[in-house]
Hints:
The chain has 467 residues and is α/β, with parallel strands linked by helices. It has 2 domains: 5-243 and 442-466, Aldehyde Dehydrogenase, Chain A, domain 1; 247-427, Aldehyde Dehydrogenase, Chain A, domain 2 (3-Layer(aba) Sandwich). The protein contains 15 helices and 20 strands. The strands form 5 sheets. Strands 14-15-16-13-12-17-18 form a 7-stranded mixed β-sheet, sandwiched between helices. It has a 6-stranded mixed β-sheet with strand order 9-8-7-10-11-19, sandwiched between helices. Helix 9 (257-269) crosses helix 10 (286-300). The longest helix is centred in the N-terminal third of the chain and has 20 residues, at 37-56. The model has no long low-confidence stretch (mean pLDDT 98). The structure holds nicotinamide-adenine-dinucleotide.
Amino acid sequence: MTYNLIIDGAAVPTESHLDVVNPATGRPFARCPAGTPADLDRAVEAARRAFPAWAAKPDAERKAAVAALADIIEANLPELAELVTREQGKPLGGFGSQWEIGGAAAWTRFTAGLDLPVEYIQDDEQGRVALHRKPIGVVGSITPWNFPVMIAIWHIMPALRAGNTVVLKPSPYTPIATLRLAELLQQALPPGVLNAVAGPDEIGRAMSSHPGIDKIVFTGSTRTGKHVMASAADTLKRLTLELGGNDAAIVLPDVDLDTAVEKIFWGAFLNNGQTCAAIKRLYVHDSIHDALCERLAAYAATVRTGDGMAADSQLGTIQNRMQFDRVSKLVDAARADGVRVLCGGAPIEGDGLFYPVTLLADAKEGMAIVDEEQFGPALPILRYSDVDDAVARANDNPNGLGGSVWSSDPDAALAIASRLECGSVWINSHAMVRPDAPFGGVKQSGIGVEFGTLGLAEFTTVQVIHQ
Ligand code: NAD
């Protein structure tokens, strides 16, 4: 099937196309329109034309429109989930594509209800000073391939809710569900308010420097985020950058293993480890190290990796060949450096990009799989004997997205949580993002936050009226 760009409320075909490969079969299953910089210009023009009327709408009308988008997503959940599974490789069930689309609808509904009321700095006989939030203009959204629909929603919905118009560019690896989503959402939006231009990375580059785009919200790798920031400088675009993570989890000696093992597993292997804020380094105290390793491996043996369309699959593929080769290489290098492979450790033969759950004990800093973001189903486990040392090692990394502390003592866990250099810390869980809690990275994991009113405010400029 061939898909189209969405510009000014209409489906726009392109001359050339990119094949979209189903990573479970290794074969193309759909054709993505290959948008050009000229298509991008047309989308930006449409978004600029649509902006004044959309921004001027009464707040209640924009709220109602965004709530209607949630209904549309919900009504089309089966189709969108199947497209996500075919292009991304994650299972339909479990923490897979149905969960992603259900979450996208819930996030949309919650965002529709958010408000940024006028704040009065002074309001008395002497005068009034009022802080207003105004939409920025045209927002360019650039998304990655791991949660294609969910992340698009995280960008689009607060942008629209705040009164901006949007040009969205999905990853060339996973453009299909996003294009279909943008097409479906036209039912509840005036033409030009939401546009989608798929195509090669070049479109993302053109967006970052485009004079008609006022803000970029980008989710992707730290490397690309730096390029976006550099090319956005000339037009001084507003930026929200949600970048890579290398989250550490610190497991204290008093952890309740009975409840922690399954949660630690899914905190690391959610979406096959292709999750920005997943456990990517597991620090375990000496006294429980061997027990935890044994129980994690036993749990891993019960988890089924397979074609996402099969009802019993709990984990699917790595999304693309480049990432698959990277994970394989990181594991091979770690093995050569002396890690103990508790399970997995080599690709599953066949046409699909299946890599088994891999647990690596005796990992150490200095190994690439510890120092860098692996973004795949391989978890390095590191020993520690002194918790201060564990905190120092956890923090000794350029990333600062998430972290977690695992303990039966809430006060001890809290004291350690506050010492971690990251934007979100969970105690006895990991990666549990929610639409009302701001989420974002410190250090090289990003700039700005998403979600909640703080996230919504990032899609506005401040105007203070002194009267
Ligand atoms: P990526 O940086 O390769 O690509 C992301 C997007 O940027 C794609 O749409 C791509 O086409 C586009 N792009 C590529 N080059 C560009 C350029 N020069 N200018 C502008 N756009 C360009 O990232 P990916 O491999 O798709 O995603 C994986 C990464 O995303 C991981 O590092 C992961 O941690 C990160 N991520 C972060 C979050 C978060 O919230 N912090 C969430 C999900 C993923």
